[in-house]
């Protein structure tokens, strides 16, 4: 690594696994020129890389931008930018990666779809769940990424039935990973969100009792909503404005951790990003 004296941020390590952080990995994607966006516009790499998951989640939740629409930078240590092949390999470690929640989860899985399909223009414009017929860069049948839209508590009976069918009642060959997102549909009502999360966790354990054992590997992540933008309709400023979002994010982090669920905050990383309506 070349050290730059007195620089606020040092350049990333000169190691093979950091190469994607310094290149426009979108260069070969479909509609790269039409969309006119580089991966370097989204993330600015620096030294040091976070050494483990806990510090990475803290750094990502606390990071932000130096100026409106500037590249995002975690705080204190950096995250990796994974190329498509690495994303495929990571997703392939799990029997299923299951996104559960409201509209924010559609954006999250849509972003994964863009990476998996190498398509900036239409990668996210399709059915949300992967199918064998879709054109993805991963090896056939090597990944299974699903989304279950559940937005209100109590959770609707048909949504409960669909979720139980999805996870089954037997231990899979590889672990399931769960990514939760909730809040805006209930105006950031903390208790309603916790009741929603508890119902899903309880349902999962009732279907898969092995997960109740202390040694069970059960990766779970809760993502809280992004910051409100300047176009946020005035009618939502009190119930879904930035003060409410910050308080909700902090409270969810504490309560999720009590339940063994990790947390990723997106308020700080999105406060200086232009968004159409802040939602």
From TrEMBL:
**Its domain of life?**
Eukaryota
What's this protein's name?
Answer: Uncharacterized protein
Species per Swiss-Prot/TrEMBL record? Trichoglossum hirsutum
């Amino acid at each position: 690594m070349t050290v730059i004296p007195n620089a606020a941020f040092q350049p990333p390590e000169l190691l093979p696994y950091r190469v994607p952080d310094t290149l426009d990995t979108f260069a070969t994607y479909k509609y790269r020129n039409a969309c006119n966006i580089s991966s370097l516009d989204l993330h600015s790499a620096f030294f040091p890389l976070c050494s483990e998951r806990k510090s990475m989640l803290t750094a990502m939740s606390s990071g932000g931008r130096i100026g409106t629409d500037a590249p995002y930078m975690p705080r204190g240590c950096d995250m990796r930018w994974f190329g498509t092949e690495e994303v495929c390999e990571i997703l392939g470690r799990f029997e299923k990666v299951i996104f559960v929640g409201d509209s924010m989860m559609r954006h999250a899985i849509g972003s994964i779809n863009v990476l998996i399909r190498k398509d900036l223009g239409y990668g996210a414009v399709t059915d949300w769940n992967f199918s064998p017929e879709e054109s993805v860069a991963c090896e056939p049948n090597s990944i299974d990424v699903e989304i279950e839209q559940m937005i209100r508590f109590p959770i609707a009976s048909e949504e409960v039935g669909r979720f139980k069918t999805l996870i089954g009642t037997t231990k899979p060959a590889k672990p399931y990973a769960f990514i939760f997102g909730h809040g805006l549909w209930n105006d950031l009502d903390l208790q309603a969100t916790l009741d929603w999360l508890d119902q899903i966790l309880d349902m999962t354990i009732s279907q898969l009792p092995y997960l109740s054992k202390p040694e069970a590997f059960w990766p779970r992540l809760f993502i809280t909503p992004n910051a409100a933008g300047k176009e946020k309709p005035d009618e939502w400023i009190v119930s879904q404005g930035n003060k409410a979002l910050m308080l909700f994010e902090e409270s969810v982090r504490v309560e999720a951790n009590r339940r063994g669920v990790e947390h990723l905050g997106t308020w700080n990383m999105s406060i200086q990003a232009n968004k159409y309506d802040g939602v």
